[in-house]
Every structure is written in C-alpha cells, then in structure tokens.
Amino acid sequence: MITAIPIILFxxxxxxxxxxxxxxxxxxxxxxxxxxxxxxxxxxxxKIPFIDRIAARLSLRIQQLDVVVETKTKDDVFVHLxxxxxxxxxxxxxxxxxxxxxxxxxxxxxxxxxLVRAEIPKMILDDVFEKKDDIAFxxxxxxxxxxxxxxxxxxKALVTDIDPDGSVKEAMNRINAAEREKVAAQHEGxxxxxxxxxxxxxxxxxKRLQGKGIADQRREIAKGLEESVDTLNKxxxxxxxxxxxxxxxxxxxxxxxxxxxxxSNLILLPNNPTAASNMLNDMTASLLAANxxxxxxxxxx
Length: 301
Description:
InterPro entries: Band7/mec-2_domain, Band_7, Band_7/SPFH_dom_sf. With 301 residues, the chain is of the alpha+beta class. The protein is built from 8 helices and 8 strands.
C-alpha cells in the first residue's frame, strides 16, 4: 500500500501536467521532441509531459489587418490609403499556416503594399476616390490567390480611408467651393431673368387692359353724348343748341367735381367770346370721330 502511493502521485502528476483545454475556434500545434506531432481542436486534450509541448496556439476566427500604404497616383499626387484586410486560417490547413509562414502579418502587409502600389499609379486622384471598391476587389482577388496555399483565406478587403497630401486637399476644396459659387450665380441669374420676364409680361398685360378700359370708356362717353343729342332733338332743340347745352352742362359738372375735393388742381381754360364756340367745335369733331369709329367697328364685325 505504501509503495502504491508514489505510483498514484506520479500518475496524478502526469495527468496534471498532460491535461489541457483548447478553446472554441482555436487550434493547438503539438510537437514531440521538436517535431510536429498533431493538431488539437477544442475540448479537453492530453499531451505527454516533458515529451510533447504546445508549439503554437492559432485562432481560427476572422481577424483583421490594417495597413496604411503611401503611393503616387498617375497625376503625380501622393496619397495615403488605409487598407483593411479580413482573413482567416483554414481549419484543414493549420499546418501550412504555422510552418510555411514565419511572420504572417509582415508577409500579408508586404503583399498589400505590392498590390496597392501596382494599382494606384494607373489612376488619377479622382479615379482613386471613385473606384475604391475596384481597388479593394483587386487586393482581395490577388491576395486570396497568393495566400491560399499558405492556409489563409481572405474574407474581405476594404479601402477604409483615402488621404491625399494637405495642399492637394486644400486645392480640391477651393475648386469645389468655386464650382458651387458658379452654380449659385447661375441659379441667381436665372431667377433674376425669370423675374424680369414675368414683370414685363405683367406690365404688358396691365397696359393692354388699361388701354382697353380707356377705349371702352371713351366709346361709352361718345354713345352717351349721342343719346343726349338725340333726346334734345326730339324735344325740339336743334343739334347746335343741344351740343352747346351739353357742353355747358359738362362744364358745370366738372367745376362741381373739382370743388368737392379740396386737394384738386384747377386748370382755367381760356375765357373769351370764342372759347365756348371753339370748345363746341372740338366736341362736335370728337362726336363725329367717335361715330365713324363705331361704324368701322360694326363693319368689321
């Protein structure tokens, strides 16, 4: 019984030193005397103490590598591009991922630098902004093809930032501001032109309606005078006396209207023995002209 205790303790020590846990989405590389032995996946695992050792712990989850690349465009503008590459170790190629690459991050970075500096010099600066998705696709395609043999799968490549030189950005902002001011000036000029045209149309329409109103007013005045002369003629008053009576009546009506408003301006017509006669002759001529215009209008209708 006493001799069995050391054996039991030895077995417990072996179990204590040999048992280990592997986390989910993780792979352990086990080496025996410096030589590859096995790959252990998630769960409770056992290795022989002092003989086997854990050489590496590799994550099988998707990882991200951010690389800032400085390069020159076709139009000689230096620009910094931030490339984000998402990659993953293939479960069935854990051996290649560990033993074939000494430093995966440095080698991935070198590939990214080479691919970006091969693509960007073919483009001008504006195309770099417009075709950043094409750049990302080219990086993913070429990087996936290069890294697949080493056990790495490229899930996604993104161009997350494009940063030109400071003086170039300032010049681009000035160009953009000038272009916006030009467009604003064009819109303002169009608005002014439309406003002027609409005002001219409104004024023309107003003049047309005003002229029509004056013509209608004069036509009605002439018609009223004609009816007044006919009425006086029927009462036995000859045309000349009727005309004189109408002129005198309108004269006094005008004076009464002027006197009703204290702010009216009075224009005194020449007052001589022939003034009334001249006024009457003028009114008669106006009536005859109005009658002739009415006759012409009736013939046209």
